User: What shape does this take?
Amino acid sequence: MSLASHGPHDAPPVLLLHGGGVAGWMWDSLKEHLQADYAVLIPDLPGHGRSADEPYVSHAATVDELARVLVDAARGRRATVVGFSLGAQLTIQLAAAHPDLVAQVIVVSAQAEPLPLTALTLAMLGASAPLARKRWFAKLQARELFIPAHLMENYISTSAGITRATLLAAVGANLRFTLPEAWPAFPGRALIMVGQRERRLMRDSAHAIHGALPGSELEIVDGCGHGIPLQRPAWFNDRVAELLR
Assistant: This one.
């Protein structure tokens, strides 16, 4: 798994996990906001961006890799983990499995209720996978994630580099995701965030994630859809910095 590290190596570690179909570049704005004071760790998840040659296998395999990243890069310090969408599911799973490595989490737009008819959805997705290599189709998809103009080429390149196998594995794991049994026992601080304009499934998922973890905080972001860090970057950056303080 390709990993970029920014900021002082001896500073408190912050791990940023991107969503499906994008890559570590989605965190450029937040990285700039944090790197003076924190060790910012930004992987490209398997099958995405600079890790395109490493196929996505499963959430469990990816969490194992992320745990090794924290052991090697965080140097014994527990990290703050920020995850969006697919990365938010991984954040939950990582925190539940390795509370010794994770101090606190920000979970942004995580689906936590399995989608009905997953097999049919994946079959349709597999049939349409070649469209991801088309610029016009990638641009349509980019609107759903609020990709800004200056990151559009990054998105088109990342989308074109995702193989059909990775697409089906990552989306399949996303659609089937349920909360880990150990999630209610996570001892760290947790902020659960969802856009007020997201699909009801996503809003219901945010309530379920929050309800399962005593002491967690739920924040419904007015006016936002599925893409809060990119749709409202300045606000999001300040919110993350506030939690870190």
User: Anything to note?
Assistant: The chain has one domain: 2-244. Strands lie at 2-6, 13-17, 39-44, 79-84, 102-108, 189-195, 217-221. The chain has a mean pLDDT of 92.
